[in-house]
Amino acid sequence: MGKIIVAGSMNMDIVATARRHPKNGETVFGSNLQYFPGGKGANQAIASSKLGAKTVMVGKVGDDAFGAQLIDFLKRENIETNISIEKGVPTGTALITVSEETSDNTIVVIPGANFSLSKGDIENADFGKGDILVSQFEIPDKTIEEFFSKGRRAGTVNIFNSAPARPISAEFLDLVDILILNETELSYISETSVEASKEESILTAIKKLQRNHLKIIVTLGEKGVLAFDGNKITRVPGRKVDSVDSTGAGDCFVGAFAAGILSGKFFAESLAFANIAASISVTRKGAGPSMPTLEEVEKQSIYLKII
Questions:
Q1: Which strands sit side by side in the sheet containing 132-136, from one edge to the other?
Q2: Alpha helix locations (H) across the chain?
Q3: 170: in domain
Q4: Is there a contact between 133 and 156 (Cβ–Cβ < 8 Å)?
Q5: pLDDT, one tens digit for every residue, the chain (307 residues)
Q6: Residue 101 counted as domain residue
Q7: 23 to each of 61, 124, 189, how far by Cα in Å?
Q8: Which one of 78, 94, 272, 292 has the lowest number of neighbouring Cβ atoms within 10 Å?
Q9: Do 194 and 200 form a contact (C-beta atoms < 8 A)?
Q10: pTM for this structure?
């Protein structure tokens, strides 16, 4: 079996919990402050590793305490680390506020060393046919392009999570096999108004990004997942859970989907598998530490629903 290689961001998440989000110019008292390993790249790597996939993390941190803590955490999660240290630059940090009323969050990311990850930093990554490459928009575009180009030459499957939302070129999409994004990111990239409750608006936006080789997956939170594979539409219904923190749910989906594909699951099966994993993750606080194990997801597998 191959492996999953994630090239992406590594952050220390500083999470403040408050009854509600403050309005402009307003101060509210918080109830808790916690530190969690995070960053979209690290979160996705943790999710795939905990679900049984051999996983490699390619990233960059600063020469500070947060960087050392992140590397240690990934190693404890059985992730092979291919991580460079950038001197004089801070490790990436995310300032997150979580509302107790709604469980949603606001996030400010300070990229730090993540934006120093270069083409040279991925040269030592060992790619093989059948490996799955995963990346997202929290490292430089040129680095992602080199990562996927190298993988394409080796015969990998390239999964891209277009988050946070940024413009994406046709040339970039040509390097991607599976594109995963939420409705906000889909709306931004396709320049089309998208509403999660209106499937036709999602399909219209998808058609603007469509390529012959490209599979597109749109995550819709509690409304589930809609995916487009050629001319086939797959729908996975949402799952009702008691959500306490949605931070990292999208990353959990990406990592779990990649793990599903690597394990030999079909496309639709991997969607449902990832949907269950993400629904479990929102019932816990934090991003990286909230990722479920394979045993936890398999216990819920009787509830797999695909339309």
A1: 80-86, 55-62, 4-7, 132-136, 157-161, 178-182, 215-219, 225-229, 232-236
A2: 40-50, 65-76, 141-154, 170-173, 183-190, 199-209, 249-262, 267-281, 294-299
A3: yes
A4: yes
A5: 799 999 999 999 898 999 999 999 999 999 999 998 999 999 999 999 999 999 999 999 999 999 999 999 999 999 999 999 999 999 999 898 989 988 788 888 899 999 999 999 988 888 999 999 999 999 999 999 999 999 999 999 999 999 988 889 989 999 999 999 999 999 898 888 888 778 888 888 888 888 878 999 999 988 889 999 877 899 998 888 877 767 788 999 999 999 999 999 999 999 999 999 999 988 887 777 789 899 999 888 765 665 5
A6: no
A7: 33, 47, 28
A8: 78
A9: no
A10: 0.90
Q: What is the number of structural domains in the chain?
A: 1
Residue 17 lies in a domain: no
Buried b (16+ CB within 10 A) or exposed e, 65-75: ebbeebbebbe
- Report the catalytic residues: 251
Q: Domain limits at 206?
A: 39-88+113-303
